[in-house]
Amino acid sequence: MIELLRRAAEEGPDRAAVVIHEQVVSYGELLARAEGYAAELTSRGLRRFATFDGDAARVIALLAAASACGVELCQFPPAEPESVAELAARFDHTVVLSADPDLDAGDAEVLDHTVWPTVPGAAGAQSSPAADARPHLILTTGTTGAPRGVRHDWSRLVRGVHRVRETPHERWLLAYGLHQFAGLQVLLHVAAARATLVAPAPRTPRAGLRAMRELGVTHASATPTYWRFLLTELAADGAPAPSLRQITLGGEAVPGPLLAQLERTFPDAAISQVYAASEFGSSGSVKDRRAGLSRSVLERGDDADVAMRIVDGELWVRSRVGMLGYHGDPPVEDPDGWRATGDLVELVGDRVEFRGRSSDIINVGGTKVHPLPIEERVSSVPGVAVARVWGRPSALTGNIVAVDVVPAPGADPARVKAAIGEACADLAGAARPRSIRFVDEIPVRGSKIVRRDIPQEGRG
Amino acid sequence: MASPRIAAENVIREFLGRIKKDPASPLDAPLYADGVGLDSLETAELSALLEDEFGSDPFSSADELPQTLAEVLDHYGAAVEAEAV
């Protein structure tokens, strides 16, 4: 990571690295900050720490500094201060870096890294020692339970950046957090391309749309859920769509109707789908604008960084760019070995189509129901802005298929409800939605839809 | 404003019409099999609907499942005739 910054800063120290609203941080400034942080981490003898900081430029500098020194960094979700103490305890952190001296970090010590000195004119310098191991800890989003700490090494994380071409004119939206694996992937791509990262705060689709319009975003990578909400914002404000050149989707299964809608809305943009996860890294991208993966992904040779196969309807991956194990667990015996992804798939013609997460399966009276195909149908119904299909507990059948719908502006709920019923009428009885509710918002975590039951929101 | 019992009866009869059952089924008709003919999924759907509308439903909260429409409605209040006795 630090090497990417050093090269970018050497070639163009004044080039914009990060844009946060009116604030522009150049590659030279970013590197100076990173080298300063690296010197401070070394002098303090820190071996691992967490950070709670929402400032993208500072976090990038910390990431680069930690990678340079071989210090394990873990970024806590910057929007959840109430979770810091619990996360610090859960992941055995004794030091948390934060700009907020009053942050409640439990037993962990809070250090203010914003006052640490920078090292101006660091471009081209090698002030920090090269480390043998460069650990990094990424927290999962916790959409299916408590977050887990995924242990990585920077040598594996940066393995794919040599394929990135230099495209310094690109301005990439940071729609993910840098605490997420996908956010790191965007950052690494931008740094390798010597491009510019546009990091609005908060990281909402509304703020993202504004950044696209006002800060000249040309490329954007986000989850399907994020794109659905962004399209809803776009429809609501009625202003022209920003002129994007690249749209990337990942983190969730990508429904065909969403791809078609993005194609209509952003006709000049190339559209890619990325299949990646914190655990096994990125498997590359698909650019044919069709839902799912090409069947050819199952035929990659032994030399591929990421190989795939299907076992009992579940996608398995062998990855040389994946994790080393989970924090607190014994190291994975063979980090490059095969492991289940939790993604349920089906071979349909020349495609590997996604049916949902194994943890999202709804058990309706003993029948297993996949929520994604239903969600795709419901999302295609006129008047539906966003939909979530989930298993609602039932005293009679264990669960029933429930649908939460955010209606499009001006939609008539009664008509939309009837249309959803018609759209799902040919489904098997267990898969037919038995509860349809209109809601103001859909619960999301890490820009992904949460499908497990949420008691406070799952009723009424 | 209709009493909870009358409101519940309206919701149930509208539901029966929507799922192609007899919305005019008598109150003492059995809910299942040869009566109104609700299957388990339709009963679960009715249970969720009533919970959404009224905050609770007799299928989830009672020890025994209601067997007739009248028993469902009893969850929301006694019949007017009973109150008059």
TrEMBL record, chain A:
Pfam families: AMP-binding, AMP-binding_C. GO terms for molecular function: medium-chain fatty acid-CoA ligase activity. One of its GO terms (biological process) is fatty acid metabolic process. Gene3D superfamilies: 3.30.300.30, N-terminal domain of ligase-like. The keyword Secreted does not apply. InterPro entries: AMP-bd_C, AMP-bd_C_sf, AMP-binding_CS, AMP-dep_synth/lig_dom, ANL_N_sf. Residues 5-326 form the AMP-dependent synthetase/ligase domain. Keywords: Ligase. SUPFAM superfamilies: Acetyl-CoA synthetase-like. Residues 374-445 form the AMP-binding enzyme C-terminal domain. The keyword Calcium does not apply. CDD domains: AFD_class_I (cd04433). Belongs to the ATP-dependent AMP-binding enzyme family. PANTHER family: ACYL-COA SYNTHETASE (PTHR43201), MEDIUM-CHAIN ACYL-COA LIGASE ACSF2, MITOCHONDRIAL (PTHR43201:SF5). This is Acyl--CoA ligase.
